[in-house]
Amino acid sequence: MRISYLLVVSSIFCMLTNSVAQEDRALERKIMVERQLIARGIKDPSTLEAMKQVPRHKFVPKKIAKQAYSDYALPIGNEQTISQPYIVALMTEALALGSTDKVLEVGTGSGYQAAVLGEIVNSVYTIEIIQDLAQSAKERLDSLGYNNVTVKWGDGYHGWPENGPFDGIMVTAGAEEIPEPLISQLKVGGRMVIPVDDRDGTYLIKITKKANKLKKKILAPVRFVPFTRDKRDH
Questions:
Q1: In angstroms, how far is CA 108 from the centroid of its own chain?
Q2: Does 4 qualify as catalytic in the annotation?
């Protein structure tokens, strides 16, 4: 009888502890949005709400989970990083997404950016060239209920033509050039955000596809890991 009582008390204690922890994380996200995003000019309501909802601490290694809502990028293994919250929000806002849109992401990483997009749009297709990251991201996104996000292991340079064209395309690695296959998979009127290397540094570029031309706009200087290609394609 005493053992049963102790088990009940232990169970209640665990539930209360988890509830408090969840509330603390929600507060951390609220503070992150207010101080790191709104204070820097992020205004899109859907982007801000998505950043409030996605549990960023679930997308970083447990040993650095306490730093998840800090104002900088974090390592996620395989010499890759999860981007600074502001950069995630900036890229998301720049795509000007609607709820019925279909988005392609190149560079899944831990899956955080895909989850943010998944909070906003109908469907997200995301490609990761590092197999370990692709597999762990898929498992993580599935466990968190992001059923509208599909993960693929492969070379993102070629995009995902069988699921295109896309309303928005996001590239989360510094590219030497804008991949032509991605341009071809972008709808007329669609937007792409991509970090592009220049001799002066790397700049985040927004591309809007018009009927007969591409409109380009520099958003900000940025730092990203290099765009990785499958060596068999060279």
A1: 7
A2: no
Q: Are strands 201-209 and 214-222 parallel, antiparallel or unpaired?
A: antiparallel
Cα 36 to the center of its chain, rounded Å: 16
Strand partners, 104: 125, 169
**CB-count burial class (<10 Å; 0-12, 13-18, 19+) for 23:** exposed
C-alpha 50/C-alpha 38 separation (Å) is 13
Q: Residue 122, SS3?
A: coil
Which residues are within 8 A (CB) of 73 and not within 5 positions of it... i.e. 6 or more apart? 81, 82, 83, 84, 87, 223
Written as one letter, the residue type at 6 is L
* Cα 95 versus chain centre, distance: 13
Dump pLDDT digits (tens) for 9-24.
444 444 444 554 566 7
Q: How do residues 56-95 score in pLDDT, each as one tens digit? A: 999 999 999 999 999 999 999 998 999 999 999 999 999 9
Q: What are phi and psi of 118, to 5 degrees?
A: -65, -20
Q: Which of 83, 110, 123, 136 is catalytic?
A: 83
**What are residue 159's phi and psi, to 5 degrees?**
70, -150
Stated pTM of the model: 0.88
- CA–CA dist 104, 141 (Å, integer): 16
